[in-house]
Amino acid sequence: MKSIRVVxxxxxxxxxxxxxxxxxxxxxMQIVGAVDLKAAEDYLPLPDDSGTVPVSSNLDYILTTxxxxxxxxxxxxxxxxxxxxxxxxxxxxxVIGTTGLTADELSEIDRLxxxxxxxxxxxxxxxLGAVLMMHLAKVAAKYLDYAEIIELHHHQxxxxxxxxxxxxxxxMAAARGxxxxxxxxxxxxxxxxxxxxxGVTIHSIRLPGLLAHQEVILGGxxxxxxxxxxxxxxxxxxxxxxxxTKDVAKHKGLVYGLDTxxxxxxx
Length: 267
Ligand SMILES: NC(=O)c1ccc[n+]([C@@H]2O[C@H](COP(=O)([O-])OP(=O)(O)OC[C@H]3O[C@@H](n4cnc5c(N)ncnc54)[C@H](O)[C@@H]3O)[C@@H](O)[C@H]2O)c1
Prior knowledge:
This protein has eight helices and 13 strands. It is an alpha/beta fold. It has an eight-stranded mixed beta sheet with strand order 3-4-2-1-5-6-7-13, sandwiched between helices.
């Protein structure tokens, strides 16, 4: 079977390196090039010692030289639209893990991908466990009327609550068609009860030693249900990235979220 030719954009970053390492060990895939603003050499040694691939800060040059089927992007939101314009011009499918894209940018990615007859998977969370945690929380949301979320992240995370916690709360309320009940006593000390989103109280914990964790606690009379996901290392994102890289060419236009690829949205 013909292998899928992949270029990694943001190849020298934390996620880019993890992606190169994971895809190198996939028999159906071939890393053919790498792009990063920090590229200082012309060639990047592959971590499985199978050789080197061209690396450059110039995406257009690498796409012309390496002729990939898929561009996997883990860079920054600022870099995305130029990368999408360049990749679609070369008729290259896109797998985008970079977070912070606006609704307008997502529409433009869809338009460009359709125009150039390629697929574009954009997933703010490639961790299968985190996607399942959100899916299970949506299922439970229909049956229990109270919910709180505790999200725990490393101390360098600048935003709070996390994007995952916010979207979990919104998706849970959407699944039940109304906000959660919030019949709790008034805060005696402002801020002590966390932030309210659709009746779900979100508590944000930031500590050294943590990576990314989330606990959804639902409550009903005489019972609680806890759904918890722990990210132990960046490896957790790799099965999702591999799945998206294999499947992206089967689609035309934008596919948003790993749950769509996993078929969880129809359930
Ligand atoms: N979707 C997911 O599951 C998931 C998981 C983890 C991180 N992320 C997101 O992935 C992105 C990258 O995260 P990271 O931790 O690897 O960051 P990082 O800073 O370690 O790596 C980003 C890399 O992109 C490069 N880069 C930046 N702008 C560029 C440009 N214009 N052209 C080429 N290269 C460029 C940088 O030089 C850097 O090497 C972030 O948006 C992060 O939120 C998503």
